[in-house]
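fold-stage: in
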Amino acid sequence: MGAAAFSGSAAATFVFGGGKAVARAPVIAQPIANDTKKLVLDLAERPAALPCFDGKTLPLWTFEEGSLYPIVRMKLGERLDTQYANHLPRAGEYVSLHWHGLRIPNDQDGVPFMTQKPVEPGSSGTYSFVPPDTGSFFFHTHCNTDEHFGRGLVGALIVEGDEIEPSDAEYVLMMKDWRLSPEGTFLPFSTDAGAAKAGTSGTVRSVNGEKTAVFKVPSSANVRIRFYNVDPTRISEIGFEDGEAAIIAIDGNGLDPLPLVSWRMGPAMRIDILLRTAPEGGKVRLVDFFAKEPVVLAEFVSEGPAKRSGAFVPTPLKVMPFPNVDVGNAQIIPFIFSATATGEALSEFAKSDVEIGSLCLTKRTFWAINKQAWSSMDHRDLGPPLAVLKSGQSYIFDLQNTTPHSHPIHIHGHTFEVMSSSMRHVQPHRADTILLRPNERVQAGIVGGQPGKWMFHCHIIDHQETGMMGYIEVA
């Protein structure tokens, strides 16, 4: 199952039911604000009884009081000034915040020991930047990430200003599993058996903290759904049992509306969906078809008078003016994602004026990129980059998965143009995370962005923390 994706940079015509999308040239998004948005985050333990916990209270770690996943909305052109405090309850629990999918300056990227000194418990830090793109992004810590994701420490960042025709309503869905014992306590967030294979799986599924999220929606309406996979491990095949729907953005990047049959998503991937809801009294169900038995993730129950009566003809979003990949002059750089011998121990770290927290690293090494495993490196002595790019120059990343497991490959501070696959038909589209299927080879164009060291890794967190991570240097 799956669907092809079409570039947002080319006009196209698609048929949706009885309606025909009108071919049109892309509309470029422009800044719609120039003021500053203030964001205050307090990372702390907050016990909560989510609906998916069946009445049990667990010690979650969250960014703010009263909400599981904060949803931060801002407008294209606004500056985001963030102040964050680390009140996590464990000594040595350093934090930094990574702004996933944003092409921002390297010193704002939030990678501990690489782009900044992490913030220790009892201390605070700041970020200040202007997001250059519209879209559905998110933020999370980049140290002890398995546990932080596992306890709920993630938030959505939405940059508005991409709609040509406003939707009738909008909903944000955050899909995440929880690793709970039958007694209602957290299980280990990572295991060797899981990390060496597909990743350590959760035991309880959820969307927005519920086993099946239910939304009351306007009838016969076009509603926008921002769907996030913020699980550390799970791969899903997202689709609707009934109703017409179209993908209008991938990882926040607008594209010509693509009829949604199903869409395979790994951790950290996002899609924006335009859904025509059911008539009054009806419902549409969002389903994960990748599981052995289809799992209903959410229901959209229609109420009230109909908003629309015509055929479903989705309007594309505005797009961003990304630099074009000069394919004819692009250097091809191979990246081979492979398994390694297990059990390789890290060498002892030398002392420094910044104490390296043991929770940022692991002594297990199961994975590598170009035969180089991240966990065999000292954070201060990074070792060589996987590649060195020149800012403004075009490259083609030849991504080769030589393993029997899938790997969602994410690059910081850049956006790929997905070009081709050895296993499936792919029309070009932009994404910051590419799901490599087992033994698949994908070619993706990229233009060197802002100078700095940019992380490049699998976003199955078990794989990231056991070797499948490195960095790209842009000069």
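fold-stage: in (second)
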Amino acid sequence: MSTAAPYETDVSGPRHDRLRQHPTPGPHNSLFPWPDAKHPLQVMVNYVVILVCRISPSLRLKNWLLSRLGVTVGDGVAWGLESTPDVFWPELITVEDHAIIGYDATLLCHEFLQDEYRTGEVVVGERAMIGAGAIVLPGVEIGAGAQVAANSLVTDDVPPETTVAGVPAEPLSSDKQAAERT
């Protein structure tokens, strides 16, 4: 028998304020009834299109295909190879003009937990950069001109013109940012 505290759905913070909670009562975890959340054929189509985008070097093709899935793609957006938008809810992603999504970066618009799943929009601001291997969680907004370092886990909003790094991603100090530029 577990001695862990009971699961709480009342979480705080700006990201969590923007998430829609979908309770999934029953004996199974929230991923078990996923076909009730999104039609399996739609997820399969999304998966195939995203798979093509992951391996295609053509930015025009990626942007065109992803916009057909409902991703809002601004002008001049660049997707690195192997980058992955959310397969279940790509329509909740907005990537503004001239943003860069790095190699193998992941933009998630859902999270499956034990007793519920949550969905939320992800917004990547104009000229923002998401580093290679970074993961952005649902409900997060990356401000214009912000930078997310490689392999970071973005759990909170990133203000404009701010650089974040780490797991979880935290703002770098001005001294560290200046040293990185030299």
